[in-house]
Amino acid sequence: MIGSLLLKGWAVSVPDYEGIRSEFLVAGTEGKAVLDGIRALDGFAPAGLQKSPKALWGYSGGSLASAAAAQLQPSYAPEVKLAGVALGGLLGDVREVIDAFSGSFAGGGIPMGINGFLRAYPELDLLQYINESGRQKVKATEADCLFESVPRYPFLTLGQIEATPDALSTPAVAQMLAENSPRSMPGAPSAPVYHYHAKLDEFAPIGPARDTIANYCRAGTIVESREKILGEHLTELALGAPGAVGFLDRRFAGKTPINTCRTVVR
Questions:
Q1: Where are the beta strands (DSSP E) in the chain?
Q2: Catalytic residue among 93, 149, 201, 225
Q3: Catalytic residue among 22, 60, 149, 225
Q4: DSSP H helices in 102-145
Q5: At the N or C end, where does the chain have fewer CB atoms within 10 A?
Q6: pTM for the complete prediction?
Q7: What's the rounded Cα separation, in Å, for the pair 60 and 30?
Q8: Active site residue 233
């Protein structure tokens, strides 16, 4: 996908948005890192891109980072001007994503994901909510990427590693998950948004994504939302890309964005 953009003559910046401690799913870290990456790009004079229009594009975990960046931009980086924001397979709510992974073939992603929150929130002592078997799995996946952790523990359920039932509903944990979820984070993008999602997405439930997009519309953001009846999370990664590129192309050309908010907000 990056290659296809380079072939169009665009410059592509790929930020290490999880930071030096790999704070996976920690929206504040990720959103600010995306915006700091654009600041760094603008500050790199030899690239000559200071006056070029800029946009964000993220899918799945990258959608959370891009959505967080877009929501933080007006307050954190008002000098960063975005022409558009493309969000695919949007992770609107972290708790619902965890529930979707639980018991699926990708269940091994849960202990890996816990590591990011352990690093970002040491004061919460999150391991107190994890049993001994779960702690071993968290430790075993601390250096993993998602595609390494998933085959370690296929079909792992959240209940198998919790020290107490429904530990994620503990007030401190629930608040942490909410503040890292675009659906419940404050702020809205100042740039037009393109949202694409498979209705049957098994890892990024569409309900929280719809809620997030509706929040944007209510805040005055122009949103073009496209949902597909057929497909799921991985297929939409590829099938939805042309629509995202077309949106970015139109935004860079200064064309008026399409607004589907009338059908999004009910």
A1: 55-59, 84-88, 193-198, 223-228
A2: 201
A3: 60
A4: 109-120, 132-140
A5: C
A6: 0.95
A7: 13
A8: yes
